[in-house]
């Protein structure tokens, strides 16, 4: 009977985490779908994602921070909602695969011969540049330059560029509306003491009417992991409160997290520790913790738990870095770790960061590590 009971406990635990994995995979697939169009600046992608995450907070049982889950702010951004035609040597190229338009580019319609500058750079006049690249990597711009720059993938277009036909539509938005999504599970004993878990939900959006950037690893995986932790803590309230923030505007320069720090919905002094999740969809080569050397005692606790439970293959220590949404909290004296996994797929800021190639290798063990670590921090 005792052996049967132990077997039941082990099976139940495994089943619980299997369910969590299913939920996380579902969230990644949902957030990277065409409905949310890269969670960016065209086709209302970011707004739709914000509404979805808010509804998921409510469904899971999180309380809003303030009057509702949304903290709204505005910032400038250059967008590409319409025409996206590029023909080189009369051959039509595929957006995202064969070329990208530099994010600061203005609209342009032009059909001209190209002049060679060097082996990688060509010009079609003062307002048009062509650049040959080994990898196409896109981003977000908050201003517009005077030159339209087209980056061509050398791996898919191998000819020498001689002529170019361009019809590109960009639209600069002075005051794009975005929202941080904030929820909390109140602590049972110390509700004014908060452990904060964060992840940015925005990505690059779309380039033209037919191409979008799914952002599976960056950062649907982080949001999905955050939501799975929210699901757990909503069902298992802790002595301290556990807060959750999905930031907007990270890809445009950590804008959402900066806004929250400057306009906090909870006192920053009440945050015991912040864990920021970004790029956590792999894990074959372990993980890295930014600010590990800034908070060595907390990092030692994390490493001890990991060694005892044999979870992540390797945890690398890294110092202070302004590379994700933890940064402005650190600058205000809030203890913060930024965790990201390593290995596996190399897709980043391109159209190949897709859910079907995202392994979620370390998800279950990362989940266990964070829960065990938080428990220790709350003691």
Automatic annotation (TrEMBL):
Q: What InterPro entries does the entry give?
A: M28_fam, Peptidase_M28
Q: Name one Pfam family in it.
A: Peptidase_M28
Q: Give the SUPFAM superfamilies listed for this entry.
A: Zn-dependent exopeptidases
Q: Which domain of life is it from?
A: Bacteria
Q: Which stretch is the leader sequence?
A: 1-18
UniProt keyword list:
Signal
Q: Where is the Peptidase M28 domain?
A: 180-372
Q: What is this protein called?
A: M28 family peptidase
């Amino acid at each position: 009977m005792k052996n049967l009971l132990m077997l039941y406990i082990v099976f139940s635990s495994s089943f619980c985490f299997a369910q969590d994995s299913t939920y996380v995979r579902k969230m990644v697939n949902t957030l990277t779908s065409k409905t949310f169009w890269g969670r960016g600046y065209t086709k209302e992608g970011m707004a739709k994602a914000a509404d979805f995450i808010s509804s998921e907070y409510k469904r899971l049982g999180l309380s809003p921070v303030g009057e509702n889950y949304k903290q709204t702010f505005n910032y400038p951004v250059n967008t590409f909602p319409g025409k996206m035609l590029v023909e080189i040597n009369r051959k039509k190229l595929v957006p995202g695969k064969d070329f990208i338009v530099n994010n600061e580019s203005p609209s342009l319609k032009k059909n001209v011969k190209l002049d060679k500058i060097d082996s990688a750079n060509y010009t079609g006049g003062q307002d048009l540049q062509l650049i040959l690249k080994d990898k196409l990597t896109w981003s977000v711009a908050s201003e517009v330059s005077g030159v339209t720059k087209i980056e061509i993938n050398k791996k898919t277009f191998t000819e020498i560029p001689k002529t170019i036909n361009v019809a590109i539509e960009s639209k600069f938005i002075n005051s794009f509306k975005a929202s941080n999504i904030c929820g909390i599970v109140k602590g049972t004993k110390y509700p004014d003491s908060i452990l904060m878990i964060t992840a940015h939900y925005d990505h690059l959006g779309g380039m033209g009417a037919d191409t979008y950037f799914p952002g599976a690893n960056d950062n649907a995986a982080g949001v999905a992991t955050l939501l799975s932790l929210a699901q757990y803590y909503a069902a298992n309230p802790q002595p301290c409160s556990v807060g959750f923030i999905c930031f907007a505007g990270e890809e445009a320069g950590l804008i959402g997290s900066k806004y929250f720090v400057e306009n906090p919905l909870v006192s920053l002094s009440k945050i015991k520790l912040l864990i920021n999740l970004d790029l956590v969809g792999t894990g074959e080569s372990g993980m890295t913790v930014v600010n590990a050397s800034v908070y060595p005692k907390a990092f030692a606790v994390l490493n001890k738990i990991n060694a005892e439970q044999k979870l992540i293959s390797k945890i690398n220590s890294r110092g202070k870095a302004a590379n994700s949404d933890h940064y402005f909290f650190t600058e205000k004296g809030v203890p913060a770790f930024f965790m990201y996994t390593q290995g596996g797929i190399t897709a980043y800021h391109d159209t190949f960061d897709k859910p079907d190639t995202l392994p979620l290798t370390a998800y279950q063990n990362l989940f266990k590590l964070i829960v065990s670590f938080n428990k220790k921090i709350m003691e």
